[in-house]
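// run 5 | inverse folding | seed 20
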């Protein structure tokens, strides 16, 4: 028996990186998954890479567009009959100092992370309440939302906002058996973090007591814990996955 047997999960930003790693962990645990991504073709390719017959589907989704988010969840319910887990993972960066950052760059990052997470949380909670079976919503914050990073006033603000959103949502929907929790990864080896300069990478590594960057699979295993009944009495919490950085 897998931890997620007979569960259906929706994951945004799932064509690569943390989103794909979470999808892989969920499928390995017995779930059927719907991968949402801005690039629908890449989402379908990612679903095919999971290698499970009819256990994964890819759907185009712009998480900042309400109708897209609603269609993503509707596609999961149409394909598999229900939605038990929602992972709001889609994210972008537009790093630069405040002095150089445009209002558009600030707003774009806020919209994708914070607006996108709010839309996904609201839509998933509504569907889970209709089903009457409870569920688990997992929102992707970041250690940047705890401590802030220079050049990331947009990203850090969005990720901090996700923590507040998670706590408020948990209080609103707990009565329906819906749990809402957040993850705060530190430096994880993904395409996004590999774009950092060697100087920045070395500086951040120096702050990690475990002496290494994390792997996507390590984040995925914590997401699996929050998606499963192993965390049945956890809601409104934020779990850091950062190797001890910024403790």
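// decoded
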């Amino acid at each position: 028996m897998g931890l997620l047997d007979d569960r259906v999960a929706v994951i945004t930003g799932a064509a690569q990186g943390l989103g794909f790693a979470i999808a892989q962990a969920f499928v390995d645990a017995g779930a059927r998954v719907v991968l949402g991504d801005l690039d629908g073709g890449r989402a379908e390719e990612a679903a095919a890479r999971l290698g499970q017959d009819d256990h994964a589907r890819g759907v185009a989704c712009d998480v900042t567009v309400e109708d897209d988010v609603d269609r993503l969840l509707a596609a999961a319910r149409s394909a598999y009959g229900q939605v038990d887990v929602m992972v709001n993972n889609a994210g972008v960066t537009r790093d630069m100092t405040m002095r150089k950052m445009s209002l558009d760059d600030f707003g774009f990052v806020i919209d994708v992370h914070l607006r996108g997470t709010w839309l996904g949380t609201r839509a998933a909670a509504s569907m889970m309440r209709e089903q009457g079976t409870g569920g688990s919503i997992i929102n992707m914050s970041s250690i940047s939302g705890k401590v802030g990073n220079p050049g990331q006033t947009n990203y850090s603000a969005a990720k901090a906002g996700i923590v507040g959103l998670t706590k408020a949502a948990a209080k609103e929907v707990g009565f329906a058996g819906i749990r809402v929790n957040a993850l705060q990864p530190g430096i994880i080896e993904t395409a996004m973090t590999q774009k950092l300069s060697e100087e920045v990478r070395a500086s951040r590594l120096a702050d990690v007591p475990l002496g290494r960057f994390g792997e996507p699979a390590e984040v995925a295993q914590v997401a699996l814990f929050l998606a499963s009944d192993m965390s049945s009495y956890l809601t409104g919490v934020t779990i850091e996955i950062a190797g001890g950085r910024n403790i």
